[in-house]
Amino acid sequence: MTEEIIIAGFGGQGVLSMGKILAYSGMMQNKEVSWMPSYGPEMRGGTANVTVIISDDRISSPILNQFDTAIILNQQSMDKFEKTVKKGGVLIYDPNGITHHPTRTDINIYTVAAVDEAAKKGSAKVFNMLILGAFLKLKPVVDPEYIHKGLEKSLPARHHHTIPDNENAIAKGKEIVMPKYLLN
Q: Are 35 and 52 in contact (CB under 8 A)?
């Protein structure tokens, strides 16, 4: 099993954190992983993306042009990365702020209303965990127990009290992901 993922959005949306949690979770499960972030100098508000590869086999290169899964959190990232999803792959996106929705018919497309759900919960900080939950429902590349360990490893100790909230958000993300277009 090898899963090649791009997560892309604005800085401040937890793009890099989501990738780091996935990478640490994979490492804790004794998988081969690669985590390669890319972001502009603006950080918050600028564009950010991270490539994560989780594999049972050795990873030859962290540099990819096509992905099994794209997780898209803003319009600029949709414009840039929709075309990079492999035929038959998965595109997951939050429709909030997306004006040109994906149009491909050779991939599986899902929406997750994470901005709306985070607002209901009264915490924008769980946005990325809702998205992560949607991804893990569709592509369970790491076992849930290792996601907990990944959260412990990636969050500073002073934030460990938020792990239950993060895990609840991951569970909720699994519930609210919706198919938009599925291949037959």
A: yes
User: Are 121 and 169 contacting, i.e. CB atoms less than 8 angstroms apart?
Assistant: yes
The model's pLDDT over 10-64, given as tens digits with 9 standing for 90+, comes to 877 889 999 999 999 999 999 999 999 987 665 556 679 999 999 999 999 888 9
Global pTM reads: 0.93
**Would you identify the CATH topology of the domain 2-181?**
Pyruvate-ferredoxin Oxidoreductase; domain 3 (3.40.920)
127-138 and 144-154 are packed helices; what angle lies between their axes, rounded to 10 degrees? 150
Residue 1 CA to chain centroid, in angstroms?
A: 18
Q: Write a three-state SS string for 68-120.
A: EEEEECCHHHHHHHHHHEEEEEEEEECCCCCCCCCCCCCCEEEECCHHHHHHH
In which band, very low, low, confident or very high, does the pLDDT at 86 lie, cut at 50, 70 and 90? very high
